[in-house]
Amino acid sequence: MLSFAAVFLLSRGFSNAQVGITLTLGSAASLLLQPMIASFADGTEKFSLRSITAVVTFSMAILSLLLLIIPPLVLPTTILYILMVAIFSPQITLVTALAMEHINSGTPINFSLARGFGSISYALLSLGMGFLVDQYGSDMIMVVNLFIAVAGGLLVLTFKKPEHAPQLDSPGIVKATGLLDFIKHNKRFVIVIFSISLMFFSHIAINTFLIQIINHVEGSNADMGIALAISGSLELPAMALFPLIAKRIRYAGTIMKISGAFLVLKAVVTLFAPNILWIDIAQSLQFFSFAMFLPASVYYVNQAINDSDKVKGQSFMVMALAISNILGNSLGGYLLDYGGGVLIMLAVGAVVSLIGLILLICVDKGIKEKVVAPNMSS
């Protein structure tokens, strides 16, 4: 739905700029929706995280179905795609918070390994999707998305309630704070979120407009699928190895900074790539960049934020990528159409990501949260 967004929307008559605007508006809507859903999930006793997550996931299925059956007109497609992007990010927050709820209650879950299997499924899907789109057209994107959303929602409903989950009215449990109070008491954390949003600028631009980058070096949709499969398949071993790396590199912030350096390197290699081979080499840097960053950021939040506000904390971390989506999609689409094309877009992306990395290094130096490696038993 995201990596093949340009492919789907361009097939519906969108321009590159319109693709960027659509994804930007979706990300902006997500920024409004994320904290609202997170605050509701943190504070409610009536609805479980499981039920809230299932509702959001099934909503993705409904939107996929609507995008399949409506005529290929720009306006209705834009509206539905904006809604889909807006709902997607809160879905990540809720699934992550659901996992952390179990981990914090003593359930032995290796989150990074589990998330790695999500990456390998994404890799296999990307590999197959490139060929499916070439063979059957872009509607296959929504057919597959519909199936995944339904299956995901049903699986979420099978989750059991954590056996030792703390109750909101239990003695000693700090009540969830409001959104403004959360920001007031976590100012440094909020600046870290902003630096991450800049750091991921190039990552988002490359992912969204990968088909244009592939075309620039004379590749095809199938080549795009292979490139995505390479990056996705490397996430599983990286995330599986995360507990071992966390034992050697004690602080989650340090791991995030190392990942940021590889994000910048990936942007530079993509910028100077003369052919498909070098695009694939750049995608292979996913092992050290996004794949390492994701579990580090999850455990960083889990340790840095009070138990009662952990959903909001995870929400802010996902919001960092939503802000990156706004910057990368809007500016990336504009640069492609009006600012000089693929090379200019990649150059700007590398510079912005470098600025974000420098800011993260400066701001996070005072935060020393020890990484707690996930339980390896099952």
Describe this structure in words.
The two termini are 32 Å apart. The C terminus is likely disordered. The chain has a single domain, classed as MFS general substrate transporter like domains (Growth Hormone, Chain: A). It is globular and about 50 Å long. By secondary structure, the chain is mostly helical. Helix 3 runs antiparallel to helix 6. The chain contains 16 helices and no strands.
Quote the distance from N terminus to C terminus: 32 Å
> How does the overall form come out from the CA principal axes?
globular
By CATH, the superfamily comes out as MFS general substrate transporter like domains
Number of helices: 16
Q: Assign the structural class, choosing from mainly alpha, mainly beta, alpha/beta, alpha+beta, or little secondary structure.
A: mainly alpha
Short description:
By secondary structure, the protein is an all-alpha fold.
Please give the structural blueprint.
Blueprint: H1 5-11, H2 16-43, H3 49-69, H4 74-104, H5 111-136, H6 139-157, H7 179-185, H8 187-199, H9 201-208, H10 210-216, H11 221-248, H12 252-272, H13 276-284, H14 290-304, H15 310-338, H16 342-364
Helix pairs in contact: 1-2, 2-4, 2-15, 3-4, 3-6, 4-15, 5-11, 8-15, 8-16, 9-15, 9-16, 11-13, 11-14, 12-13, 12-14, 12-16, 14-15, 15-16
Pick out its properties.
mainly alpha, Growth Hormone, Chain: A, single chain, 378 residues
